[in-house]
Write a structure and sequence with these properties.
The protein is built from 4 helices and 8 strands, in the order αββαβαβββββα. It has about 180 residues and is an alpha+beta fold. The chain has one domain: Roll (Mannose-Binding Protein A, Chain A), CATH 3.10.100.10. It has a 4-stranded antiparallel sheet, sandwiched between helices. A 4-stranded antiparallel sheet has the order 5-4-6-7, with helices on one face. It is globular. The relative contact order is 0.19. The chain binds calcium ion (2 copies). One calcium ion (CA) binds next to strand 7. One calcium ion (CA) binds next to loops.
Protein backbone atom coordinates (compact mmCIF):
# COMPACT_ATOMS: atom_id res chain seq x y z
CA UNK A 1 0.00 0.00 0.00
CA UNK A 2 2.74 2.36 1.03
CA UNK A 3 4.76 1.50 -2.05
CA UNK A 4 1.83 2.26 -4.33
CA UNK A 5 1.38 5.67 -2.81
CA UNK A 6 5.03 6.55 -3.42
CA UNK A 7 4.60 5.41 -7.01
CA UNK A 8 1.62 7.70 -7.47
CA UNK A 9 3.48 10.63 -5.94
CA UNK A 10 6.44 10.21 -8.28
CA UNK A 11 4.04 9.81 -11.20
CA UNK A 12 2.42 13.11 -10.25
CA UNK A 13 5.87 14.61 -9.94
CA UNK A 14 6.72 13.40 -13.43
CA UNK A 15 3.47 14.80 -14.81
CA UNK A 16 4.17 18.18 -13.25
CA UNK A 17 7.74 18.11 -14.55
CA UNK A 18 6.41 17.34 -18.04
CA UNK A 19 3.97 20.21 -17.84
CA UNK A 20 6.63 22.65 -16.73
CA UNK A 21 9.36 21.21 -18.92
CA UNK A 22 7.49 22.19 -22.06
CA UNK A 23 9.46 21.13 -25.06
CA UNK A 24 11.52 18.46 -23.29
CA UNK A 25 8.84 15.79 -23.79
CA UNK A 26 6.43 16.50 -26.60
CA UNK A 27 4.91 13.03 -26.86
CA UNK A 28 2.60 13.49 -23.89
CA UNK A 29 -0.99 14.72 -23.85
CA UNK A 30 0.15 17.01 -21.03
CA UNK A 31 1.92 19.19 -23.57
CA UNK A 32 -1.21 20.31 -25.44
CA UNK A 33 -2.28 23.85 -24.62
CA UNK A 34 -5.72 25.18 -25.45
CA UNK A 35 -6.79 28.62 -26.66
CA UNK A 36 -10.08 29.65 -28.28
CA UNK A 37 -11.08 26.01 -28.81
CA UNK A 38 -7.85 25.19 -30.67
CA UNK A 39 -4.96 23.13 -29.32
CA UNK A 40 -1.29 23.92 -29.65
CA UNK A 41 2.02 22.22 -29.05
CA UNK A 42 5.65 22.49 -30.09
CA UNK A 43 7.33 20.14 -32.54
CA UNK A 44 9.30 17.58 -30.51
CA UNK A 45 12.64 18.61 -32.03
CA UNK A 46 14.27 21.40 -33.97
CA UNK A 47 13.75 20.82 -37.67
CA UNK A 48 13.28 22.65 -40.96
CA UNK A 49 10.20 24.81 -41.56
CA UNK A 50 8.94 22.17 -44.03
CA UNK A 51 9.62 19.37 -41.54
CA UNK A 52 7.67 21.27 -38.87
CA UNK A 53 4.73 21.83 -41.22
CA UNK A 54 4.72 18.10 -42.13
CA UNK A 55 4.71 17.21 -38.44
CA UNK A 56 1.78 19.58 -37.83
CA UNK A 57 -0.18 17.99 -40.70
CA UNK A 58 0.47 14.50 -39.28
CA UNK A 59 -1.45 15.67 -36.19
CA UNK A 60 -4.33 17.06 -38.24
CA UNK A 61 -3.12 20.64 -37.92
CA UNK A 62 -0.81 23.19 -39.49
CA UNK A 63 1.99 25.40 -38.24
CA UNK A 64 0.35 28.12 -36.18
CA UNK A 65 -1.82 30.80 -37.82
CA UNK A 66 -1.65 34.04 -35.82
CA UNK A 67 -4.97 35.82 -36.31
CA UNK A 68 -4.45 38.78 -33.99
CA UNK A 69 -2.22 40.38 -31.36
CA UNK A 70 -4.07 38.59 -28.54
CA UNK A 71 -3.19 35.19 -29.98
CA UNK A 72 0.44 36.20 -30.46
CA UNK A 73 0.76 37.36 -26.88
CA UNK A 74 -0.87 34.13 -25.66
CA UNK A 75 1.70 32.19 -27.71
CA UNK A 76 4.58 34.15 -26.15
CA UNK A 77 3.19 33.66 -22.65
CA UNK A 78 2.62 29.95 -23.24
CA UNK A 79 5.62 28.82 -25.33
CA UNK A 80 8.14 31.55 -24.60
CA UNK A 81 9.93 34.16 -26.67
CA UNK A 82 12.49 32.06 -28.50
CA UNK A 83 12.38 32.09 -32.30
CA UNK A 84 9.83 29.49 -33.52
CA UNK A 85 8.38 28.63 -36.92
CA UNK A 86 4.82 29.69 -37.78
CA UNK A 87 2.62 28.88 -40.79
CA UNK A 88 3.16 32.10 -42.77
CA UNK A 89 4.73 31.53 -46.21
CA UNK A 90 4.81 32.61 -49.82
CA UNK A 91 3.32 29.80 -51.94
CA UNK A 92 4.41 31.65 -55.10
CA UNK A 93 7.81 33.06 -54.16
CA UNK A 94 9.01 35.94 -56.26
CA UNK A 95 5.58 37.56 -56.50
CA UNK A 96 5.53 41.04 -54.99
CA UNK A 97 8.67 40.54 -52.92
CA UNK A 98 9.36 41.10 -50.17
CA UNK A 99 6.04 41.95 -48.48
CA UNK A 100 3.48 40.54 -50.94
CA UNK A 101 1.94 37.14 -51.51
CA UNK A 102 2.07 35.93 -47.89
CA UNK A 103 -0.48 33.31 -46.84
CA UNK A 104 -1.19 31.04 -43.89
CA UNK A 105 -0.80 27.29 -44.49
CA UNK A 106 -4.20 26.86 -42.76
CA UNK A 107 -5.81 28.86 -45.61
CA UNK A 108 -7.21 31.38 -43.13
CA UNK A 109 -7.28 35.00 -44.31
CA UNK A 110 -4.42 37.31 -43.32
CA UNK A 111 -5.95 39.56 -40.65
CA UNK A 112 -2.82 40.59 -38.76
CA UNK A 113 0.94 40.84 -39.29
CA UNK A 114 3.77 41.70 -36.92
CA UNK A 115 6.95 41.88 -39.00
CA UNK A 116 10.14 42.80 -37.17
CA UNK A 117 11.61 46.16 -38.16
CA UNK A 118 13.25 45.81 -41.59
CA UNK A 119 11.47 42.51 -42.32
CA UNK A 120 10.43 40.84 -44.49
CA UNK A 121 13.63 41.51 -46.44
CA UNK A 122 13.71 38.44 -48.72
CA UNK A 123 17.45 38.20 -48.11
CA UNK A 124 19.32 36.93 -51.20
CA UNK A 125 15.91 36.41 -52.81
CA UNK A 126 15.47 33.16 -50.87
CA UNK A 127 13.22 33.92 -47.90
CA UNK A 128 9.67 32.62 -48.30
CA UNK A 129 9.01 31.05 -44.87
CA UNK A 130 8.84 32.56 -41.39
CA UNK A 131 9.48 32.44 -37.69
CA UNK A 132 8.15 34.65 -34.90
CA UNK A 133 10.04 36.21 -31.94
CA UNK A 134 12.99 37.52 -34.00
CA UNK A 135 16.08 37.89 -31.74
CA UNK A 136 13.97 36.26 -28.99
CA UNK A 137 10.86 38.31 -28.37
CA UNK A 138 10.72 40.51 -31.49
CA UNK A 139 8.43 40.41 -34.50
CA UNK A 140 8.27 38.13 -37.54
CA UNK A 141 11.16 37.38 -39.90
CA UNK A 142 11.20 35.74 -43.33
CA UNK A 143 13.78 32.97 -43.65
CA UNK A 144 15.15 30.65 -46.36
CA UNK A 145 14.42 26.93 -46.73
CA UNK A 146 17.78 25.79 -45.38
CA UNK A 147 17.13 26.71 -41.74
CA UNK A 148 16.84 23.59 -39.58
CA UNK A 149 17.50 24.89 -36.09
CA UNK A 150 14.09 25.91 -34.67
CA UNK A 151 11.01 24.22 -33.27
CA UNK A 152 7.62 25.11 -34.71
CA UNK A 153 4.27 25.77 -33.06
CA UNK A 154 1.52 23.35 -34.16
CA UNK A 155 -2.10 24.51 -34.13
CA UNK A 156 -4.96 22.01 -34.44
CA UNK A 157 -8.47 23.44 -34.85
CA UNK A 158 -9.99 21.03 -32.33
CA UNK A 159 -10.28 20.90 -28.56
CA UNK A 160 -7.71 18.92 -26.55
CA UNK A 161 -7.61 15.12 -26.53
CA UNK A 162 -8.98 15.16 -23.01
CA UNK A 163 -11.95 17.16 -24.25
CA UNK A 164 -12.46 14.72 -27.12
CA UNK A 165 -12.27 11.73 -24.75
CA UNK A 166 -14.92 13.40 -22.62
CA UNK A 167 -17.16 13.86 -25.63
CA UNK A 168 -16.51 10.24 -26.64
CA UNK A 169 -17.64 8.76 -23.34
CA UNK A 170 -20.65 11.06 -23.36
CA UNK A 171 -21.61 9.64 -26.75
CA UNK A 172 -21.16 6.12 -25.40
CA UNK A 173 -23.39 6.82 -22.43
CA UNK A 174 -26.03 8.24 -24.69
CA UNK A 175 -25.91 5.20 -26.92
CA UNK A 176 -26.19 2.85 -23.92
CA UNK A 177 -29.38 4.51 -22.79
CA UNK A 178 -31.19 3.65 -26.02
CA1 LIG B 1 10.23 36.10 -49.89
CA1 LIG C 1 14.37 38.03 -43.33
Amino acid sequence: MKKKKTGLVSLLGAAIALGLGGRANASSVVDWKEYNGHRYELTPDVTSWTGAEHYARSLGGRLVTINDAAEESWLKNTFGTEEMYMGFYQPNPGENEPAGGWEWTSGEPVTYTNWHRGEPNNSQGLEHWTHMNMYNGGGWNDIPANWDNLVGIVEVPEPTTIGLLGLGSFGLLKRRKK
